[in-house]
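Field log, afternoon session.

UNIT: design team B
ACTIVITY: writing a sequence onto a fixed backbone
BACKBONE:
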């Protein structure tokens, strides 16, 4: 197995775990009365799932991997495990954790498990599809970081009624999708709505 495949498998696992964690964080935000923050976490969870599926597609891995990771039964077990291990805290703490996680994905240049190093490996191995999948994910981590930072400043102010997610790259926008995704060019009519 080459570096790029190893990196994609690691990234797929990380994106899938983050998606489940964000679903748990959404549940907590709802319980605390932060409906807008809960929507943000649900939207980020959908985006993470898109990243995982993209990495899986590049790996030409079996669809069963994602099906297994995202079965409602497995998600419920994973959320229960997070709860029992203290992995779900207050909404403010969960926002901080999400912001740190998203930021680390694109800022840790030297870390071989962060996107910049993975992209370098894909370029060196001339793995164009992997490069695109990893670059999309890294770019959208920056978008998520901005959204989480905004929510962290004032969770009560997050009243976005709907988020829109690009089905190709996972780009996440508030209220109204752009005419075309600025990252991958997908038409706004194909965006997924999370309310």
């Amino acid at each position: 197995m080459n570096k790029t495949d190893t990196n994609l498998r690691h990234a797929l696992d990380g994106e899938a775990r983050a998606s489940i964690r964000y679903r748990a964080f959404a549940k907590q935000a709802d319980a605390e009365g932060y409906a807008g923050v809960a929507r943000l976490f649900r939207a980020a969870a959908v985006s993470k799932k898109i990243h995982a599926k993209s990495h899986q597609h590049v790996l030409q891995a079996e669809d069963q991997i994602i099906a297994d990771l995202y079965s409602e039964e497995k998600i419920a077990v994973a959320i229960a495990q997070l709860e029992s291990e203290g992995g779900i805290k207050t909404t403010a703490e969960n926002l901080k954790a999400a912001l740190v996680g998203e930021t680390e994905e694109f800022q840790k240049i030297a870390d071989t498990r962060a996107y910049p190093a993975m992209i370098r490996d894909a370029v060196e191995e001339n793995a164009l599809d992997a490069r695109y999948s990893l670059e999309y994910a890294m770019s959208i981590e920056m978008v998520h970081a901005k959204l989480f930072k905004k929510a962290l400043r004032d969770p009560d102010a997050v009243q976005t009624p709907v988020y829109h997610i690009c089905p190709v790259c996972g780009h996440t926008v508030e209220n109204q999708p752009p005419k075309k995704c600025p990252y991958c060019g997908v038409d706004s009519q194909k965006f997924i709505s999370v309310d």
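LOG NOTE: The CA atoms of residues 92 and 153 lie 9 Å apart.
NEXT ACTIVITY: expression trials, pending approval
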